């Protein structure tokens, strides 16, 4: 198991007493450590995950069969493929990180489309929330209840493998049991602010993400050579160069010679840097071992509902609005709903690619249905529109006014080190060429997001809204949370 955080509150304080993370065991990581070293939590962690003896720590669960009472319409076709012997087989897709924001929506979407789906997840993200005193705006059911509910509504089974992909034994067991045709890898620590809290979280993030991905590459090589890796990268790998951003590669002529090279990477947090390292490892193994891979350089995702999560409250997706895991547009909608000024960091000219969660699931399906060739390292820029932070704030202000909300904006001193006014023009045509039909950010979507935030207003903890993690003040000492 990658090292886990031992803190429980909201405002970050320096602790001089404790190590933030227990050390990894010498025999590979474990899914759930026997002690998380929590300092002051009264949260019943054993109800969150099962605590087992070391040799039993990773376990495999088949979601329980319950009576079918509703069938969601599915579109057949892309979810199956023809074997060389002429028989047709359902594609088997392993979704690593399938309990998270993008992964949960994708698992349901692919299951609904007729793919055989398995979720692999350590549930570490739920643990971060407990340790930092954070919670999703939407109430989210346990993974077991989520899957039971899905089965009861659709009759479709999603297999569940609970464990840490940094534990190769666990991953190997999951691969050999499920035998995936495609692996969609969402299973990383994905918050830039989290990776900038302190040394231990920076190390955790890079260890968890880089070693996890390396293990996935080795598992494919060893057990499922033909398996297509669909890896979630990030647009943030490119940074904000003063030239157009291409999709993965750029053709350069230098001193009279021309070559097509990986597009330069200028990541701006230890999290974003972990993604750069992943991309290099994947590119290398495509070349060296003939692995087929697609790196989806995704922009910032917004929204919460997909066709499948709409079916029942127990299928709710998570919706983060706090200063650690919340992303810009989702945060702004919650802030508007509770009358908190929109937190524009610095000058607000920071421009990024954005996409609706409904397009995330579409893009992943398109990547699976149109796999990379053996040895090919394919890169798609996965976003549909670009906005500056100021533009987002203006859109939310306008949508809020329509609902009678008086939305104000505040320019918070930027806790990050990033360009606040810059050129940004990133290509994003490859997924469109494959058939992506974008859900662009519209007034109606903003209305519905704002209404959603209003619906769950009593769950909002205003103390979690302001950013508390500074890129410049990151230090060696573990920072501890106090309620
Ligand atoms: P999330 O934190 O909601 O979900 C990640 C999931 O992975 C969690 O359920 C977590 O428990 C699991 N996980 C983490 N480390 C693991 C490990 N070692 N073994 C097994 N499971 C592990 O994150 P998300 O927002 O769904 O993001 C998913 C992926 O998409 C990430 O790789 C992220 O970098 C990428 N991405 C996200 C966004 C966004 O706006 N959310 C944008 C671009 C890219
Ligand atoms: N920002 C604000 N105010 C806020 C929150 C953010 O001005 O309240 C600014 C940030 O400074 C940044 C921009 O908005 O310039 C985007 O920040 P974010 O928190 O929405 O997103 P980011 O930290 O970049 O990370 C998110 C996901 C990450 C993913 C990344 C895609 O958490 O997993 O990789 O989006 S990208 O931005 O393209 O790298």
Automatic annotation (TrEMBL):
It comes from Eucalyptus grandis. GO terms for biological process: glycolipid biosynthetic process; sulfolipid biosynthetic process. One of its GO terms (molecular function) is UDPsulfoquinovose synthase activity. This is NAD-dependent epimerase/dehydratase domain-containing protein. Residues 93-381 form the NAD-dependent epimerase/dehydratase domain. GO terms for cellular component: membrane. It comes from the Eukaryota. PANTHER family: DTDP-D-GLUCOSE 4,6-DEHYDRATASE-RELATED. Belongs to the NAD(P)-dependent epimerase/dehydratase family.
